[in-house]
Amino acid sequence: MDLSYLWSALQAGAGKILPTVVLALVPFGIGVLLGLPAALGRYFRVPVLKQTLDVLVSLIKGIPVLLMLMAFYVISSQSFDSVMQSLGLPFSFRGLPKGLIAGAALAVYAAAALSEVFRGALASVPKGQYDAAYACGLSKSQAMRRIILPQVLPVSLPMGCNIMIALIKSAALGSLVSFIDVMNAAVNSMAASYRFLEAYIAAALIYWGICVITEQLFKLLEHHFARRRTA
Amino acid sequence: MSDIILELRGLEKSFGKRSVLKGVDLRIAKGETVALLGPSGSGKTTLLRCLNLLEHADGGTLRIESQSLELHRAGKKESLQMCRRTAMVFQHYDLFLNKTVLQNVTEGLVIGRKIPAKEAAQTAMDALEKVGMADRANSRPQQLSGGQQQRVGIARALALNPAVLLLDEPTSSLDPERVQEILDLIAVLAKSGATMLIVTHEMAFAYEASDRVIFMDEGEIVEQGPPREVFGNPQQERTKQFITRFLNNKSPGYFI
Ligand SMILES: Nc1ncnc2c1ncn2[C@@H]1O[C@H](COP(=O)(O)OP(=O)(O)O)[C@@H](O)[C@H]1O
Ligand SMILES: [Mg+2]
């Protein structure tokens, strides 16, 4: 192993930290926005919605993210142009940022995974909290916003952190649709010299770093909520 | 009794095929303290929950103050309005775990009743003062003992200034040495003119602090009357058995 190659691979990989984090963070955000209502629909057994979501989540959980990504790619390569044409919009598949396809696949995965997390967290709130809220004259939505969800979100943090980390690592799959993340940048930089071991070690170190920082950020959030609960 | 503040007629409630309340009638006068007794599973909690509209009844009409409601077809808005006429003290306290003691009490005032925050805080502090918890206003429920939590639970209900205060076995989860102080607190409230319906297994308390005792069994009111009569000279066989069982278990002779 050659340290100078490692160093230049590190530099190449580090240059793509931002797109990597964005490719994980945006799907995570979308996953929260979709996963929370989905969890509520499932937990409160909204007719039809619950059954539909149960099947969807089970399906998404059972499919490798890689497969979903490829399916999204194939579907959009076949139909994006004709859809845009029929809508009269000046976009083409050729000009489509491929990160969007990877992001869409990761968002679907994140929504399913986070809906499971939120559902578990909802189940951890004692029934008495609902009774007390209604008995104090709160409406259903007031009880949800002011009493239940503030207890659900802190409980969701540790599992949410795991999903965020899984998303960061999954960003590497973006290379299949020519999205360049940390790993692909590091490997590409060594393509001429065939120093792939250095490239892999460099990428591993960077991912590790990102994940450690992510974990610390989530821990800070957890401490913030824990302090609010007991102080 | 002249000034009837709560009037319930023909309350029916089933869970699935199991009929839990079979046509319960109930009248409570302003300022009255009513003790609701009965074996476990007789429907006492369900009755309170139906009065508070936490449970959707299958039939019956409820009037509290000036509002009447057919319970099985009550709309959201009327239900919420009726619900706000009562307040509930729970067996397991059920304080809001994400709120401080003070916020527990102000929540229903500010959010449920749209009272300005400042006024609500004042009302809440007065209620906490009454139950001896004003000095813990900024504590979290997790930092309090069971007895302290129940005091806050009582303050939370009192602050709402309900027409009728509903208490469901308020001392059943407490350590034995804490039971009496909570009972004493409730007795003080009863004397100060609050209207209360209290489910309890504390017979001595029911005997001394209540104006009327109702004995319930299998979803029906079996017998009711002044505590002296119901305890001293029960008319129904089921009441006799229930009271005798309690006298044998607990210290006998206390109220005879
Ligand atoms: N949510 C519920 N679902 C089904 N059965 C219930 C429910 N709540 C109470 N019950 C049943 O109704 C009956 C009366 O219960 P409850 O009102 O809690 O009695 P008590 O408070 O007198 O002990 C019991 O048989 C109980 O099992
Ligand atoms: Mg009960």
Task: Describe the structure concisely for a colleague.
The complex is a heterodimer of chains A (231) and B (256). Chain A is mainly α and 231 residues long. Chain A is built from nine helices and no strands.
What does this structure look like?
The complex is a heterodimer of chains A (231) and B (256). Chain A is built from 9 helices and no strands. Chain A is an all-alpha fold and 231 residues long. Chain A is flat and about 70 Å long. The termini of chain A are far apart. In chain A, helix 7 runs antiparallel to helix 9. Chain A has 2 domains: 1-16 and 180-231; 21-157, Orthogonal Bundle (MetI-like fold), CATH 1.10.3720. With 256 residues, chain B is α/β, with parallel strands linked by helices. Chain B is built from 9 helices and 10 strands. Chain B has helices at residues 44-51, 76-83, 101-112, 117-130, 146-159, 176-191, 203-209, 227-232, 237-249; strands at residues 4-15, 18-29, 33-37, 59-64, 67-70, 86-89, 164-168, 196-199, 212-217, 220-225. In chain B, the strands form 2 sheets. In chain B, strands 6-7-8-3-9-10 form a 6-stranded mixed beta sheet, sandwiched between helices. In chain B, helix 3 runs parallel beside helix 5. The interface between A and B is medium-sized, with 21 and 31 residues. The complex binds adenosine-5'-diphosphate and magnesium ion. Magnesium ion binds at residues 44-45, 169 of chain B.
